[in-house]
Amino acid sequence: MSAPGGPETPGAPGVLELDQLSLSFGGLKALSGLDLKVRDREVVSVIGPNGAGKTTVFNVITGVYEPTAGDVRFAGESIAGRAPYVIARLGIARTFQTLRLFMNMSVLENVMAATYGGTKAMPWESVLRLPRARREEREVRALAEDVLSFFGQRLAGYRWDQPAYSLSYANRRRLEIARALATRPRLLLLDEPAAGMNPAETHEVTELIGRLRDERGVAILVIEHDMHVVAGCSDRVVALDHGVKIAEGGFDEVANHPAVVEAYMGRHPEDLAEAD
Amino acid sequence: MSVDSQGPKVGADEWVARQAHRREYLPSWLGQAQRAGERIGWWPGLAIAGLAGLALPLLGVGGFQLQVGIDALVIALLAVGLNVVVGWAGLLDLGFIAFFGVGAYGFALLSSPQLGSAGIHLPTYLSVPIVMIIAALLGLAVGLPSRRLIGDYLAIVTLFLGEAFVEFTNNVAPSVLGGPNGITTIDPISIFGYQLTTNASYYYLLVIVVVAVMAVLRLLETSRTGRAWRAVREDPLAAAAMTIPVNRVRLSAFACGAMVAALAGAIYAAQQTSVFPTDFDTPILILIYAGLILGGSGSIAGAVTGALVVMVIYDGLLRSSTEAGYLFYGLILLTLLVRLRPWRRLALVLAATVALGFAAHAIAAAISASAVAGGPQSGGWITDALRDWVIVPANAQTLGNWGFVVLICLLITLVQVSSRWRTILLPPTLCLASFVWETRLVTEPAITRQLMIGAILIVMMNARPQGLLGQRRVETAT
């Protein structure tokens, strides 16, 4: 099952390509001229200070916002401005920075609900339990158990039939990823998967991202503030500030890039003195 | 004492989960009944409830009680349809009653001399599906605003649409729809050549239809469609990101609810043999909502149970002053028994209430004979029991009205003050409540039953906010 992340092959077509993407809210430029490419089975991290536009990128990719200029291409096809559910059906799944689970549905139902786009049974087929509805229900159930078992004992057994609100915080984050996997994505967008987790759980997230790529074969675009996670999982790192890409490359390269340091820390006092 | 060594460690995730599960149950024998209900399972439970419903007339229930049963079942059918829209899809639809009207008027037009020269008299197996389909299409149309409106806005817009239906039937084409006089010559429903003309036959039909609709909705609830409905209720943005076309799913919920309402309307029209615009006005809508909320929004069994409870209380018990009296005093006693702790405090309050009543009665009688000339109005043994306890003057109307105002003020004070003052204020409040009940409320059943339903909902809200059979829910921020 395991496939190597592989060295980057420059020029290979990306699963996801952002082309001069811009988004303005009135006079506020949330994103301007952003180029970004995610290749098959590649983990790309997006970093940047608060308000840099990271989540906005996700919202544009998943169709929550329509870009004011530029294009979003997924598997070679332009998806800019298409409805969120259509984009999800094409194979882009996401998690949310502020958890957005179906809190009052059971763990299993949360995952099964995400298979809506992959199934076709009409209501009357479900009521009459016609063959197609029964077959799909079996498949959906198997898929749900499969993606939940990806998290080992964390989301197993008695937890399946519990409402999602009864889960611990870390398990809610895991369930969100499981739910996203149930849409059978080619590209997974993770919005701060390690936010609010303790060091042990954070380490687990780093491993999880690697396993998602290797065992599930998905490309991953991840927003993360925890630099241990970013260093541990990324094939490539992209740094944003004020909606503009300020650096791109390997983790060490980006982390030491002067523009990135400045965006996070402000300018060094000596540099400021020199500028005067 | 046995310790469950197999159980999870205290504080562990599974332990927390079990504790939460345990809290779902009501205390004491009610909790045991709940557990027994769960052990039976949903489908056998439905079968038992259905058979019990069918057996009820065999126990000698008839006449007025049967009519109450029919009305209750119609409202139950409406509540379970409303549950699709409100309980599952989370759309606050206040125009739902209009689909009931569409079903009734649609069936009336297709089964009466109203349309054309000789009228249309379609067989039931055609007319009922036709009105259901029409209602579903209308449901789609009414659901269209939900693309842009949600929550309060959707509620108020649909409320206008519902009122528009009443105005429409009142004013448009009076030669066909009959205006305020309605349509009064509707054919009965006929099944396999049997014409249903007696109340008993409609009662049986309704029990079967309610059980069938519950079964269909149960199959839907646990299917792809049902999951999508609830996902959209929980979080539309997340649902869309998980491949669910939110708008289409919302519309399908509207259409599904409308079909159930139209079915109820058709049966109602045939049973009444007449329809009037006022049958489909807001008061009925309030009863449907009361039933759904009392029973537990989001639960099929809850919606039906809640509607039956509300209608039996509202239509059955509260029409007779004696039974209303039992309910009133019973509710007060029950609340005192449950809420007043420790026992000494309860005994003190009860004793003080009884003593205060007799003392006040004796003093009032000594001052003027006419002050106690009225006598309790509840009837039955309540009247005999309270004759020398509650003061009822000969002409109590004005005094009763003022008493009511003072009672409301006292009740508001009661919830504000400390526990000591509450104990002191309770006996006079109880005496005053009884006075207001015997002088005014019992003689105004139309108002009283509204107040009682409101009071029951307030008690429910505090005791068990998820409703009788509903699942506890957390609010999700959107």
Could you outline the blueprint of secondary structure elements for this entry?
The complex is a heterodimer of chains A (276) and B (478).
Chain A: E1 16-25, E2 28-38, E3 43-47, H1 54-61, E4 69-74, E5 77-78, H2 84-90, E6 92-94, H3 107-113, H4 123-128, H5 131-149, H6 169-181, E7 187-191, H7 199-216, E8 219-223, H8 227-233, E9 236-241, E10 244-249, H9 251-255, H10 258-265, H11 269-275
Helix pairs in contact in A: 3-6, 7-8
Chain B: H1 13-23, H2 28-40, H3 42-55, H4 64-88, H5 97-110, E1 111-112, E2 120-121, H6 124-143, H7 152-171, H8 174-177, E3 190-191, E4 194-195, H9 199-221, H10 224-234, H11 236-241, H12 246-272, H13 282-295, H14 300-316, H15 321-339, H16 343-367, H17 380-386, H18 397-416, H19 419-441, H20 445-463
Antiparallel strand pairs in B: 1-2, 3-4
Helix pairs in contact in B: 3-9, 4-9, 4-12, 4-13, 4-14, 5-6, 5-7, 5-12, 6-12, 10-12, 13-14, 16-19, 18-19
Summarize the structure in words.
The complex is a heterodimer of chains A (276) and B (478). In chain A, 38% of the residues lie in helices and 21% in strands. Chain A is an alpha/beta fold and 276 residues long. Chain A has a six-stranded mixed sheet, sandwiched between helices. In chain A, strands 2-1-4-5 form a four-stranded antiparallel sheet, with helices on one face. Chain A has two domains: 1-91 and 185-276, P-loop containing nucleotide triphosphate hydrolases (Rossmann fold), CATH 3.40.50; 105-179, no CATH class. Chain A has helices at 54-61, 84-90, 107-113, 123-128, 131-149, 169-181, 199-216, 227-233, 251-255, 258-265, 269-275, and strands at 16-25, 28-38, 43-47, 69-74, 77-78, 92-94, 187-191, 219-223, 236-241, 244-249. Chain A has eleven helices and ten strands. Chain B is mainly alpha-helical and 478 residues long. Chain B is built from 20 helices and four strands. Residues 1-5 of chain B have low confidence and may be disordered. Chain B has helices spanning 13-23, 28-40, 42-55, 64-88, 97-110, 124-143, 152-171, 174-177, 199-221, 224-234, 236-241, 246-272, 282-295, 300-316, 321-339, 343-367, 380-386, 397-416, 419-441, 445-463, and strands at 111-112, 120-121, 190-191, 194-195. Chain B is globular. Chain B has two domains: 41-319, Orthogonal Bundle (ABC transporter involved in vitamin B12 uptake, BtuC); 322-463, no CATH class. The longest helix of chain B is centred in the middle third of the chain and has 27 residues, at 246-272. In chain B, the strands form two sheets. In chain B, strands 1-2 form a two-stranded antiparallel ribbon. A two-stranded antiparallel ribbon of chain B has the order 3-4. Classes of the chains: A alpha/beta (276), B mainly alpha (478). Chain A binds chain B through residues 62, 64, 83-85, 88-89, 93-94, 96, 100-105, 109, 112-119, 121, 123, 126-127, 129, 133, 136-137, 140, 158-159, 162-163, 165-166, 168, 171, 179-180, 182-183, and chain B through 13-14, 16-17, 20, 216, 219-220, 223-228, 230-231, 234-235, 237-246, 252, 256, 471, 473-474, 476.
